[in-house]
Amino acid sequence: MANFTFQGKNIYYETHGEGSPLLVLNGIMMNCLSWNPFVRPFSRQNRLILLDMLDQGRSDKMEGPYTQEIQADLIRALLDELKLEKINILGISYGGEVALHFAVKYPSCVDRLVLSNTTCYTSPWLRDIGEGWNRAASDGEAYYYTTIPVIYSPKFYLENNEWMENRKKLLIPIFSNKAFVSSMIRLTDSASTLDLRDRISEIQAETLVISSEFDFITPPPEQKFIVSRLRHVSYALMPDCGHASMYEKPMLFASLVLGFVNNCETLYTV
């Protein structure tokens, strides 16, 4: 557990283990605690770095609007804080969008890049989903029912309904907290102008793009577009899975990430 200052803001991060550094970037509603089930496998061979970005978890809140580019600059400052020249990055959903910003702006700083359930462009459809979230944010229950069910695949939701009911009891009080929902609105708005379609081809890093079959937030065509623009890219589709792939299929998720990041070979002669 540690903190550093970025543009006058207190930023929280954690490091676990030793080895090749692996930075994990949260989805929009997540924080460092969200990765607790993954700390052990992710830190067994790697120096795992967890980060609460601005407006997330134990990092400071923002006072006004901003774009995701500031989150990319925050990562650059974190590398300076840790005296790292190059890192592996795993970004899921919102974190994947920030990872794309970072890989475009600081290409020489990325070794391996894993993009899960993410997009390089906030389409009018996705922007309207975000607007729906923002309009429901004044009521904790409405915000829960607007945001959470669609994050999961129908199969997972039905087969794990007791778990989902417990999540509801946990999340509705959090979603009723004004400071939290204010952060969520700013985070959502920060993604509203995302459009890296003409720039992602600049990314130099070996990249793994992960889709989920039943992702209703960032469906597979969003990831396939990214794949079509990258030079050094691999692609995986997780079957029977929704947007929250790390929770629905944690073993497969971890296997894909660690297998890709820690594979010492990039070229095979068969």
TrEMBL record:
Source domain of life: Bacteria
AB hydrolase-1 domain mapped to chain residues: 21-250
Entries under Gene3D superfamilies matching the protein: alpha/beta hydrolase (3.40.50.1820)
Family annotation (Pfam families): Abhydrolase_1
Protein name as annotated: Pimeloyl-ACP methyl ester carboxylesterase
